[in-house]
Structure formats: C-alpha cells, structure tokens
Amino acid sequence: MEIKSAALIGVGAVGSYFAYGLPAKLGDRFCVIASGKRKERLEKEGIYINGARCPLNLKTAQKAGKVDLVLVATKQTALPEIMDDICALVGENTIVLSLLNGVTSEEIIGNEIGMEHMLYSLMRIDAVRDGNQMELHFDRIAGVFFGEKDHTEPTERVQAVLDLFEGTSVRANFVPDIMTDLWLKYVSNVSQNLPQAILGVGFGAYKDSEHVRAVATGLWQEVVQVAAKKGVRLPERLLLFHGTVKEARFSTLQDLDAGRHTEIDIFAGEMMHMGKEFEIPVPYCEYTYHMIKALEEKNDGKFNY
Fold first, then answer.
1. Residues 98, 109: contact at Cβ < 8 Å?
2. Which of 13, 109, 213, 215 could disulfide-pair with 127, CB 3.0 to 4.6 Å?
3. Angstrom distance (rounded) from CA 102 to CA 80
4. Torsion over CA of 154, 95, 131 and 34, rounded to 10 degrees?
5. Contacts of 271 (CB under 8 A, 6+ apart)
6. How far, in Å, CA of 158 to CA of 132, rounded?
7. Which residues form the Ketopantoate reductase N-terminal domain (predicted)?
8. Per-residue pLDDT tens for 20-31?
9. Tell me, what's the pLDDT at 98?
10. Tens-digit pLDDT profile for residues 44-62
11. How many domains would you assign to the chain?
12. Whole domain around residue 153: which residue ranges?
C-alpha cells in the first residue's frame, strides 16, 4: 500500500505543519481544501509560517476528488460544515487522520464515512497562531502520533502513513496503545490547557502556585474516573507537560487572547456529557466550562463592565 495523494482540511497552527512538510514529497498531489470566501481569503492573504509565505495548492473537495489520505486539522466545531468535503474526498481505500483535540472526532467522522477509514491520531505541537501568521517551533514539535485501535504492531495502513512522512519535516510516530495516548493528551488538555485560560497565566503557574496546581489536579482526577468507565486506565497523579517553558500559553488561552471562541465544548463540555452518562460528578469541569464560556461572552462584547 502506497499513499500517492493527500488532502488537508484546515491550515491553522496544526494544519500549517503539514502544509509546510508534505509538498516536498507529494508535489501537486497534495492540496489544501477550501471553497467560497475561505478559498478567496487564502488565495489573497495566504498563510505565513515563521515569517515566510507558505505556497498552498488550493482546491475544492469536488475538484480534488478521491485521495489516498485525508488530514483533518480544523477545530471540532467546524466538523458539521466540512463533513461533505470529507465525504467527497474519501474513496474505497482512503485513510483519514483526524488531528483534532478531544476523544470523539474519530467516531463523529467515522459515523459518516465508516470507521474502516479512520486511524486514531493526535498532535503534539508547539505553535502559536496570530491570524494568518503561524509560528512553529520545529525543535519542540514532537509531531503526529497514530495507530490502529487494538493493534500493537503497525498495520499495512499505518506503515503506508509512516512511509509517506519519511524524508519530510513531519515527525511521524506509531503508537502501540493509541487509545491510552489519546486519553493522556485529553486529560492533559483538560487539566492544564483550561485553568491557565481562566487565570491568564503561563504554564509556570502550575509549578509555582499550589492553588493553580490544585485546580489542575481536580480536573485531572475527574477525567481519570471517566476514562476508567471507557476502559482506559490513566495515572492517578497529575502529570505536568514535560519540558514546557514557563511562559507557554496553550491553545485555549491563545484563543481567548485573540478574541476567538475556544474548544471548551470538547474539553469540559464533553466531560460534563460523559460524566452524566456514567453518573460521575464532575464539578471542576462544570465550573471551568462556565468560566470559559463567560470569558468568551466577554470577548464577544456581551458585557464590558
């Protein structure tokens, strides 16, 4: 099995990593999917990676047709509006990598196109987005991690993806237990992405303040309980992101800083849903959800007093 064509949906901080790395391998057989006003904006304004404009081979999904690999790099809130594009790109043997945060996007997409097309995946990236300007810290980017559910050795599909990224700037990593890795990233996002967004502080606050750390610990423990009901065993003790600088501001705080809506629904919101499903109280997640929703309202101008 060989991947000869690929399409990317979404060119934010995550998508730009692939927009930068894959053209050297695939040439014009790699494209970025866009249509309407979004396509016009990208054609006019483009995206810049570390100050340099990144060439984009822009196509509508209909013009691109069936491809061997689809990379989904939007936010999860955009899934309903891009689902038709995903369906248009998927052929009989197409592989789909959903690079979104959270633990539900694979099932959401798979319910539309068939789970047989999905590989479970996650990103570990150090990047900052300001409009169409992307700052990628390549030396601190671990890359994309992926695997098959219930397969501890690379399958033919996994190997095809590894072969594609070989020789590019994209760091690709096979994970034998991808479901645990997905939940480890999820619990880290819930416990460390969210408290700093409420407080407006860098990552160092988790180490320097027992109170910030206490909030992170409460969130962590709630996710551990829910994950156990899903059959995933997570460490009981809070694990802080390794090797992160004190000034680091993660995606939720970056969104609030820029006046954008956040992904709170797939973090604390999804936890509230799963907590209700399993009858597990999640008070830290509920409080955090409403606090960040209120900060979004403040950014929207609902109140300025």
1. yes
2. 13
3. 16
4. 170
5. 190, 222, 223, 226, 282, 285
6. 32
7. 7-138
8. 999 999 999 999
9. 98
10. 999 999 999 999 999 999 9
11. 2
12. 6-176
